[in-house]
Amino acid sequence: MPMSKLWQAAVDQLEQDHDLPEEQFALLLNESDPALSAYLAERASAVRNRFFGRDIYIRGLIEFTNYCKNDCFYCGIRNSCKNVNRYRLNEEQILSCCGTGYALGFRTFVLQGGEDPYWNDQRLCSLISAIKSAYPDCAVTLSVGERSRESYQRLFDAGADRYLLRHETADPSHYRRLHPENLHFEDRIRCLRDLKEIGFQTGCGFMVGSPGQTTDCILKDLQFIHSLQPEMVGIGPFIPASGTPFESQHIGSSSLTLKLLSMIRLMFPRVLLPATTALGTAEADGRQQGILAGANVIMPNLSPASVRKKYSLYDNKLSSGEEAAESVEQLRRSMEKIGYRIVTDRGDYPSE
Ligand code: 5AD
């Protein structure tokens, strides 16, 4: 069989079975023929359109604290980064972001922050209840890192609907390469399993091209996602952040990110899959390409303009133009150009 037929057969099998033998996954990951990416994107779009039509969900991302007690080697707001201007929004400021977002058509608010001890269960639960009582038709998504199962349960009971916690890598030795000694792979996986069991719509995910990542790591990521059965998967290219141990490392590949978005769509037809800010930062039309590869979620920035530049996970992180929630009209037009529409809908995980 000529090479192209080999990968075409693998894509067709992935679409049919939602799974592949490892060698076939590896073949797809390592083949750089643009015709493969195009075919993956075509099949992934067809599968996404079957469940979601041409609807794209938007989530208002509120980066409410950049304090973080952790020291992940890749992250621009790690504790050791002394050049970061630290900030923390208060409840009133966060509610005001939600108000702005609601008027713009957002029905999901994502509260993302570093692991900031100030935001203990009591404060977070009070914030969640306040948002849910002011906006009962909206979903609240949390993205505040590792906590105890009891804490996750309290946040859920306070009304949080969803939780994003990227697993970062499913390979324990790669995990060690990315994180300091006091962070443990087993804890992270435990958190994700707790979140699912408690009943959160749960998102995991990883960076593409983080230092030390091999094809084998990515195979493990796909296998892990398969075992977790998350409702959401967030992936974007690794982008070096100045002032971190990885500041001189290479940026991750956008084309591999796009192939992975398509493969994940074929594996999990109903999954909520964002075209991430990192992809939009790495490529001029990254978000559009992400949608065309099978993504169906965009998370514009709803944080107050004054703090946006301070949530510097990596260098040159986008926070203006279509990345900004107030430019949702511009985003709408750019999605319409490629044949998609932004909808005002909570965009929950679709039931069977
Ligand atoms: N490049 C790309 N993504 C990053 N993240 C953190 N640092 C970087 C970086 N340098 C991602 C992590 C984290 C999410 C909030 O941002 O995957 O889970």
Please describe the topology of this protein.
Elements: H1 3-17, H2 22-30, H3 34-52, E1 55-58, E2 60-65, H4 91-104, E3 108-113, H5 121-134, E4 139-143, H6 149-157, E5 162-164, H7 172-178, H8 185-198, E6 201-208, H9 215-228, E7 232-237, H10 254-267, H11 277-282, H12 286-292, E8 297-298, H13 305-308, H14 328-337, E9 341-343
Parallel strand pairs: 1-8, 1-9, 2-3, 3-4, 4-5, 5-6, 6-7
Bound molecules: 5'-deoxyadenosine (5AD).
Q: How would you explain this protein's 3D organization?
A:
The protein has 14 helices and nine strands. The protein has 352 residues and is of the alpha/beta class. It has one domain: TIM Barrel. Helix 6 links the parallel strand 4 and strand 5 (162-164). Helix 1 packs parallel to helix 3 (34-52), helix 5 runs parallel beside helix 6 (149-157) and helix 6 (149-157) runs parallel beside helix 8. The chain is globular, with a radius of gyration of 19 Å. The two termini are 37 Å apart. It binds 5'-deoxyadenosine. 5'-deoxyadenosine binds next to loops.
Key terms:
TIM Barrel; binds 5'-deoxyadenosine; 44% helix; 9 strands; 352 residues
Q: State mean pLDDT (0 to 100 scale).
A: 96
Q: Which runs of at least 5 residues are low in confidence (pLDDT < 50)?
A: none
Rg over CA atoms, rounded to whole Å, is: 19 Å
Distance between the termini: 37 Å
How much helix, percentage-wise, in residues? 40-55%
Strand content: 5-15%
Tell me, what is the CATH class? Alpha Beta
CATH topology: TIM Barrel
CATH architecture: Alpha-Beta Barrel
The fourth-level CATH homologous superfamily is Aldolase class I
Tally of separate helices: 14
Shape: globular
Q: Write out the distinct hetero groups bound to the structure.
A: 5'-deoxyadenosine
